[in-house]
Amino acid sequence: MKRSFLAFQSKNSSFIRALSVISAGTLLFSLSSCSFVTHTPSDFSSSSPVSPPPVEATLKIISGADLQYTNENCELVQYPESAVHEGNLILVNNSIPFVFPEDQQDSLQTVLEEKGSGYKVKDNTVQVDGRIMDSLNNMLADFNQATGYGDVTVVSGFRTEEYQQMLLDREIQQSGEETARKWVAKPGGSEHHTGLAIDFSIYHDNGLSSEYDGTGEPAWINQNSWKYGFILRYPDDKRDITGIYYEPWHFRWVGLPHAAAVTKEGICLEEYIDYLRQFTFDGSHYQIQCGEKTYEVWFEYGTQVHVPKEGSYTVSGNNVDGFIVTAEQNTAE
Fold first, then answer.
1. Quick check: is 161 catalytic?
2. In the chain, beta strands by DSSP E
3. What is the pLDDT of residues 79-119, one digit of tens each?
């Protein structure tokens, strides 16, 4: 039996915004030679986002005889209350704060030390949860191979609560509180606390920098990120739900098959977590066919969770009120 519990978890240039909303560190490559183009926040809010990508996934609601996982082949497992705040699918926003685990530093990796080819990293302070490194490396290597473009730069990953406070305070000073809160999450409410979120910008070999707006060659990333478990976290048409304006540079890793489902449904993470609550163990389940694998998904309120007695599955808290079980279906004939 393979059991896995995942997560144990004023004017500014848009690049400067991404960078200032991202880091006060010194770049390993020199910024003294960079040339920045200034834009106001409205430039992004009025620009046209990349069209939704075609997602090669089939989504179904199944029940009755179509269910593969029932009381006959599942067992009830007790999880600690703290586990609700851990996992690939935890929801973090200004209303639902991240709960920092004491041993979080043990799960972080320095991107510069672990990076693959085909992209750049701001400096050696950028860290992410180790769960996402393979996906990040694979995505950007495939992007580089497909486009020949190597100027995408990872400029932000994990942030402490203190660092997020500094970013918010600085943005309030620069842009005013109302504008700042449209772009910068409050301390505790930032996805960057999880280590599962990354921000991109563009840094060219000639010393010039530009904003990552998800167009041009980088549009490949926005169109294909779901294949690697990443979602565009703050779509332009979901700002009233997410509470954050359109950020084409900000991606959140939720893993497969959920990145495929979120993208194909055309919804944000808040909507997806709420949507999954209807799929209780004793009721209908959510089936996601993605690539060669098919998954069965259900939600459990509380801390007692039905999990398969055999087979591959993951369990993630939603950071609110329960757990999401994702079980790989046995499709062998």
1. no
2. 2-5, 57-62, 74-78, 108-110, 120-121, 127-129, 152-156, 197-203, 209-210, 230-232, 250-253, 285-290, 293-301, 304-308, 312-317, 322-328
3. 999 999 999 999 999 999 999 999 999 999 999 999 999 99
φ, ψ of residue 290 in degrees (nearest 5): -140, 115
pTM reported for the whole predicted model: 0.85
Residues 91 and 322: beta-carbon distance below 8 Å: no
3-class DSSP assignment, residue 147: helix
Q: How confident is the model at residue 50 (pLDDT cuts 50, 70, 90)?
A: low
Q: What is the mean pLDDT of residues 222-242?
A: 96
CB atoms within 10 A of CB 315: 25
How far apart (Å, rounded) are the C-alpha atoms in residues 244 and 78?
35
Query: Cα 277 to chain center, whole Å?
Result: 20
Average pLDDT over residues 132-151: 97
Q: Which two tokens stand for residue 122?
A: 């701001």
Q: What are the structure tokens assigned to 260, written together? A: 């495929």
CA–CA separation, 226 vs 242, rounded Å? Answer: 19
Residues facing 66 on adjacent strands: none
Least confident among 36-40, 131-135, 312-316: 36-40
- In eight-state DSSP terms, residue 159 is -
What are the residues facing 312 on neighbouring strands?
A: 2
Catalytic residue among 86, 171, 191, 247: 247
Residue 53 preceded by cis peptide, ω within 30: no
Cα separation, 70 vs 124, whole angstroms: 47
